[in-house]
Specification:
Layout (H helix, E strand, L loop, with lengths): L1 E7 L2 E7 L2 H10 L2 E9 L2 H7 L4 H4 L18 E8 L10
Antiparallel strand pairs: 1-2, 3-4
Length: 93
């Protein structure tokens, strides 16, 4: 987890960035089993890592459907989970 200064819509911005491992641990520690994970921003993330500007990299997101097998390289992910019966009602920090 770390703060990241970036440009968002042409304006300076700061966002908090969390690793997938951090998010998975937080979710599973609270009794939620991760059933599916969908990575997105694959192509644009790769281009940003190569030094391409955010504005030039953004249109590459259209290629993400073709790059699904490489979603582990994605910058963003949606995790879908289900609260386990034994974890129901428990909440931890």
């Amino acid at each position: 987890m770390a703060p990241l200064r970036t440009i968002n819509n042409g304006q300076p911005d700061m966002v908090w960035v969390y690793s997938r491992a951090f998010v998975r641990r937080a979710i599973t520690r609270n009794g939620i089993a991760i059933e599916r994970e969908h990575g997105f921003h694959i192509a644009s993330a790769g281009l940003l890592r190569l030094g391409v500007s955010q504005q030039a990299a953004a249109p590459a997101a259209k290629l993400d459907r073709l790059l699904r097998p490489f979603s582990f390289f994605a910058d963003d992910a949606i995790l879908i989970g289900r609260k386990s019966e034994e974890g129901a009602g428990e909440v931890s920090d």
